[in-house]
Write a structure and sequence with these properties.
The complex is a heterodimer of chains A (117) and B (114). Helix content of chain A is 0%, strand content 49%. Chain A is an all-beta fold and 117 residues long. The radius of gyration of chain A is 14 Å and the shape is globular. Chain B is mainly beta. In chain B, 0% of the residues lie in helices and 54% in strands. Chain B is built from no helices and eleven strands. In chain B, a hairpin with a 5-residue loop joins strand 6 and strand 7. The chains are: A mainly beta (117), B mainly beta (114). The interface between A and B is medium-sized, with 25 and 22 residues.
């Protein structure tokens, strides 16, 4: 089954304790992205990657890191989490080359709800 | 730069009534427009998209949207609401269809009552 898998789904941590949220897709998509969703603000892009070893900042990158060593994986790293990073996080992937009907359509994972105390 | 405005953070309709969710956009170049739906405890899934061509776009689950350039709008409609339509709906725009430039609205939560 084609999917974007995020882990964990729920995470409670404390301020300053480094954490990683994993994201993996099995659709061979070039593009991957991380968003955070907050009430009244919709989805805001944190980082994105156009392909392996190519990453770039989105609209709200402060306090986050990413890496793209393999095409299928795009982990989100919070090196020193703070309470203002409590949010619902989504990973997405998209094909950006070729002629398929879903070119540039983003496919989303189920989300990771993070609470930083 | 592009932006999306969704009027009404909450919309309530009766089952069987018309659903109308409003979306206005701004874009400096011809836009690609999308509606995504988020069911409780799930990720977003694509309802429909407008790229080029026909301005009335049909999506899944009986939804459709019409691109009106003169009004910079892309409102989502469904003739008859069903209880299963209760969800949050997001309008999104990208200036050239490039995945990296997708900008989302703040969402509209649809409630369907008996």
């Amino acid at each position: 089954e084609a999917q974007v898998t995020q882990n964990p789904r729920y995470l409670i941590t404390v301020t300053g304790k480094k954490l990683t949220v994993t994201c993996s897709q099995n659709m061979n998509h070039e593009y991957m992205s991380w968003y955070r969703q907050d009430p009244g603000l919709g989805l805001r892009q944190i980082y994105y990657s156009m392909n392996v070893e190519v990453t770039d900042k989105g609209d709200v990158p402060e306090g986050y890191k990413v890496s793209r060593k393999e095409k299928r994986n795009f982990p989100l790293i919070l090196e020193s989490p703070s309470p203002n990073q409590t949010s619902l996080y989504f990973c997405a992937s998209s094909p950006i080359t070729g002629t398929s009907d879903d070119k540039n359509i983003q496919y989303f994972g189920a989300g990771t709800r993070l609470s930083v105390l | 730069a592009q932006s999306v405005t969704q009027l009404g953070s909450h919309v309530s309709v009766s089952e069987g009534a018309l659903v109308l969710l409003r979306c206005n956009y701004s874009s400096s170049v011809p836009p690609y427009l999308f509606w995504y739906v988020q069911y409780p405890n799930q990720g977003l899934q694509l309802l429909l998209k407008y790229t080029t061509g026909a301005t009335l776009v049909k999506g899944i689950n009986g939804f459709e949207a019409e691109f009106k350039k003169s009004e910079t709008s892309f409102h989502l409609t469904k003739p008859s609401a069903h209880m299963s339509d209760a969800a949050e709906y997001f309008c999104a725009v990208s200036p050239t269809g490039t995945a990296s430039k997708l900008t989302f609205g703040t969402g509209t939560r649809l409630q369907v009552t008996l």
